Amino acid sequence: MTSPLAQPLPLACGATISNRIGKSAMTEGLADSFDRPTKQHNQLYQTWSLGGTGVHITGNVMIDRRYLERAGNVVLEDDSEIDKFKHWARAGTVGGNHLWMQISHPGRQCPSLVNSQPLSPSDVQLKMLGSFSKPRALTQLEIEEIIQRYVNTASLAKQAGFTGVQVHCAHGYLISQFLSPKTNQRTDQWGGSLENRARFARLVVQAVRKAVGDDFPLSVKLNSADFQKGGFSLQDCVQVAAWLAQDGIDLLEISGGTYEQLSLMGVEATEVRESTRRREAYFLEYAKAIKASAKVPLMITGGFRSRAVMEQAISTGEIDMVGLARPLCTEPDVSRKLIEQNIDSIDDFETCLKIGDGFWGNNSPVPLIKTMNTVGQVSFYYQQIIRLAKGLPVNTKLKVFPLFWQHMLNDTCLNIRRKRAQRRYRT
Q1: Which one, of 88, 96, 101, lies nearest residue 19 by Cα?
Q2: Measured between alpha carbons, how far is 293 from 64 in angstroms, rounded to an integer?
Q3: Phi, psi (5° rounding) for residue 201?
Q4: 150-175: average pLDDT
Q5: How far apart are CA 64 and CA 146, in angstroms?
Q6: How do the residues of the chain divide into helix, strand and coil, expressed in percent and rounded to 5?
Q7: Residue 278 CB: number of other CB atoms within 10 A?
Q8: Domains of the chain as residue ranges with CATH
Q9: Which distant-in-sequence residues (6+ apart) come within 8 Å of 335 by Cβ?
Q10: How many CB atoms lie within 10 A of CB 340?
Q11: What confidence tens digit (pLDDT) does each residue in 102-141 have?
Q12: Which of 25, 277, 288, 319 would you label with 129, given CA atoms 20 to 30 Å apart?
């Protein structure tokens, strides 16, 4: 029998995705010292492109080089290096798949090593390892400028040959900060009611749609919830999803969590039901309400590991696409294997990625040890990305404790390298 995952997915813009598996965005950290894509991007995305996934969404491409999610991000502000982006787009579509650029602004989730005065709707401090400075509240003129930056980057992505764009409205980045009452405490037209808090997201999407035209795929990544008391809720998500559908999106990707509540990493998604199927797909239980409201193709990302769960979710119409991320780091052609029904499940390395057992495990009573385990897990997959980008095979024998320190050192070195290079450029 043919897998439901093999079905093509037509979009309202007229484009068609060849199957029902999408690669969700993962930060690559592969940009050069001047925030440009490199040959490593080309190698990585060509490898992924040949793996059978229907649509690949890049790691977040920044719309403003002053504010990054981390050093190593790609920035697309103008066409001065457009050829590098064209090479990336060609390499990432050799398998006949879509390649969509995720465009983003980190807001307050900009590390202090990148910028010591980040921006946000309000001056609410991000509490995480002391790595982030207190943000400054955006002015009206700055908000309008940022909207135009999203438009500019989306237009350049289309010019470079990317087959679509995704506006990042999730995971606590700037648009997500506008949506959440915890981080948006404004009393003007941009804050207060949900309608006001969603105004920024809607204007960005409307402006991007107008710039790229009606025949170009436009996606949004949105939190099902922030999983924080007083934050963006499922009820908020259902309404915002309906508004974004009216604004002309072609595909809605649902995830969840922020830096302060790491449901996006499979951690502490406490509101998920207790059935085995629901535990596997973290945000699947929210799909019905969101899809009924938005009436656009829906992609759920987070936790899918067994083919049976994926196929059931597609065949029952709960969702339209399965979003995978980490599995593609350790098995770049996993989508083809799933679609051809050659495997029943994906290796779940998260269950064994920890410093140790008991006190040293993922449920350690010591917050620092829990953080080290979480960051070590992230670094495990990040190191696989680096290996793939260099044309090397994956190495699943890496250990969490040294990976934590390697990740911290690597990010510090990326920041130092970037600062030095750009200082020389300015002088």
Answers
A1: 96
A2: 33
A3: -60, -45
A4: 97
A5: 8
A6: 40, 10, 45
A7: 16
A8: 4-346 (3.20.20.70), 348-427 (no CATH)
A9: 5, 19, 21, 23, 51, 52, 53, 54, 324, 328
A10: 13
A11: 999 999 999 998 999 999 999 999 886 668 999 999 999 9
A12: 25
Q: What is the mean pLDDT of the segment spanning 225-253?
A: 91
Question: Which helix (H) or strand (E) is 22 found in, with range?
Answer: strand 21-23
Kindly give, in sequence order, each residue whose CB lies less than 8 Å from that of residue 263, ignoring residues fewer than 6 positions away. Answer: 227, 256, 257, 269, 282, 302
Cα–Cα distance measured from residue 266 to residue 258, given in angstroms and rounded to the nearest whole number: 11
Q: What's the predicted TM-score (pTM) here?
A: 0.92
Q: In terms of DSSP bridges, do strands 251-255 and 321-324 run parallel, antiparallel, or are they unpaired? A: unpaired
Rounded to a whole number of angstroms, the CA Rg of the chain reads: 20
CB proximity list for 62: less than 8 A, separation 6 or greater: 35, 68, 69, 73, 74, 75, 76, 104, 105, 106
∠ Cα 24 146 253 (to 5°): 20
CB 118 within 8 A of CB 107: yes
**What's the pLDDT score for residue 257?**
67
381 contacts 326 by C-beta, under 8 angstroms: yes
- Residue 256, Cα to own-chain centre: how many angstroms? 10
Question: Rounded to 5 degrees, what are φ and ψ at 218?
Answer: -130, 120
Q: What is the dihedral of CA 405, 412, 70, 196, to 10 degrees?
A: 90
Pairing of strands 98-104, 164-169: parallel
Listed residue (96, 13, 99) closest to 296, CA to CA: 13
Query: Which residue is it, tokens 């969101």?
Result: 290
417, with CB counted inside 10 A (0-12, 13-18, 19+), is middle
Q: Which residue, among 49, 42, 120, 43, has the nearest Cα to 86 in the 3D structure?
A: 42
Distance of alpha carbon 84 from alpha carbon 100, whole angstroms: 16
Instruction: Give the integer Cα–Cα distance in Å for 380 and 18.
Output: 30
